[in-house]
Amino acid sequence: MSSTHSHQEPTLTKFKTPQALQSAIYTFIIVGIITFAIGVFKSPERLWASYLTSFFYFASLVCGAMFFVALNYVAKAGWSASIRRFAEAMTSYFPVMLISSLVLILGFKYLYAWGVPETRAAMSHSKQIYLAPWFVITRLLVFGLGSLYFAKLIVGNSLKQDQSGDHALTYKNIAYSVGYIAFFAIFFTMFSIDTMMSLLPTWYSTIYGIYCFSAAIQSTMAVLALIIVWMRNSSWVSGYVTEEHQHDIGKFLKGFTVFWAYIAFSQFVLIWYANIPEETEFYIIRSLNGWMPVSFALLIFRFIVPFLVLLPRGSKRNNSILVSVSILVLVMQYIDLYWLVYPNFFDGVPKFGFWEIGMFLGFAGLFLMTMTRFMTKNNLVAIKDPRMHEALKHHVTY
After folding, report:
1. How far apart are CA 15 and CA 8, in angstroms?
2. Which of 61, 59, 63, 65 is nearest to 104 (CA)?
3. Is 164 exposed, middle or buried, given 0-12, 13-18 or 19+ CB atoms closer than 10 A?
4. How high does pLDDT run on average in the chain?
């Protein structure tokens, strides 16, 4: 078999945010601030529903990126050494996630039945304890601060290694990454239950956290695929990011597309088969008032289309196809969260417009701002990672 490797010498240049992207970032942030300021006074119920949807969307991305970084350290994966820094750049959003989770507290009374003393009193005793606002806030703080702490440790060591070349930092990060994955498994599940599942406090699912996890990783892989295609076609990381890396991220994207579908089907079929009123209400309200097309759209465009398109080997190596599928997955991630949040409000009738677009753009601007600032201040590649030689020689055979 003939090799298709590129033998060019890898080169690294300083990243500078394109002016058009910089202008878009500031515009998005301004639109988000204006939307929030108007919405707080004019339409708080609609504002907080859109805030929660966009907040969870970008929180999922940053948590997924940190999980990807930790997973590669634990697996001692060498192939990803030259692209890991892109996921590390995404983790710079953690401070914004922490602050925006505190802002979310202001919207408790508009979003959650447990946020109002009168309706909380009607819940079971155990739910009153678990969903006590002070307890929910404590868990939000632990999750936000803990995530930020692990990011400082793991990403901080990766950046230090760029200067010192100390291989011991990589081995320290393996231990830290094991700790993060354990922390993430517990507290991301609580985070998903507290902010999303408790919107309908009479309903419950034992795999809701895994559902949110699978969606988060799938969308994170889509973002990484977009970044890798962008970087491959730039001069910033010439030779460091190759078609082989793009192919593997495409495989991750396809794999988590299947995993999301498996979890979504498992949750649905068990509830449908058991036919318990406390469980079926979740799907019943998503089959009425115009929600059925949205439910089927998730099946078709979040699973069937991405899965079939990414099956051929060449699709994952084709820039246009991979970018198109990645954008589709990211759009469907928002629709999925919209599907989880909005049927609980406005008499179950779908609503979409200025508030949803404005809040999403605001969060998107903050996410892009933190990520591009990180990329501007640091190397785009972990140049002194001891496994870099594996990444540069990486070749996918299937």
Report:
1. 20
2. 59
3. exposed
4. 94
| Over residues 31-58, mean pLDDT | 97
Nearest to 239 by CA among 9, 34, 19: 9
Cβ–Cβ under 8 Å, residues 59 and 20: no
Structure tokens at 62: 């940053």
Whole-number Å distance between alpha carbons of 99 and 25: 19
CA gap 200, 245 in Å, rounded:
41
Return the SS3 of 252. helix
**What is the spatial distance between Cα 35 and Cα 12, in angstroms, rounded to a whole number?**
40
Predicted model pTM = 0.95
Do residues 39 and 103 make contact, with C-beta atoms less than 8 angstroms apart?
no
What is the rounded distance in angstroms from the CA atom of residue 335 to the CA atom of residue 46? 16
Q: In which band, very low, low, confident or very high, does the pLDDT at 6 lie, cut at 50, 70 and 90?
A: very low
What number of other Cβ atoms are within 10 A of residue 272's Cβ? 11
Instruction: Please tell me the predicted confidence (pLDDT) of residue 184.
Output: 98
> Does residue 9 carry a pLDDT above 90?
no
Amino acid at position 257, single letter: T
8 falls in which pLDDT band (50, 70, 90)? Answer: low
**Contact 27/183 with Cβ under 8 angstroms?**
no
In whole angstroms, give the CA distance from residue 213 to residue 264: 11
Cβ neighbour number for residue 326 with a 10 Å cutoff: 25
Residue 55 and residue 356 in contact, taking contact as beta carbons nearer than 8 Å: no
Per-residue pLDDT, averaged over 279-299, amounts to 94
Distance separating alpha carbons of residues 284 and 30, to the nearest angstrom: 38
Query: Quick check: 264 and 321 in contact, CB under 8 A?
Result: no
Give 323-382 pLDDT, tens digit per residue.
999 999 999 999 999 999 999 999 889 999 999 999 999 999 999 999 999 999 999 999
Q: What is the pLDDT of residues 93-136, one digit of tens each?
A: 999 999 999 999 999 999 999 999 888 888 888 999 999 999 99
Tell me the H-state helices in the chain.
19-42, 44-74, 84-90, 94-104, 108-111, 117-120, 125-130, 133-164, 168-195, 208-232, 243-274, 277-284, 292-297, 305-310, 313-317, 319-341, 354-377, 388-392
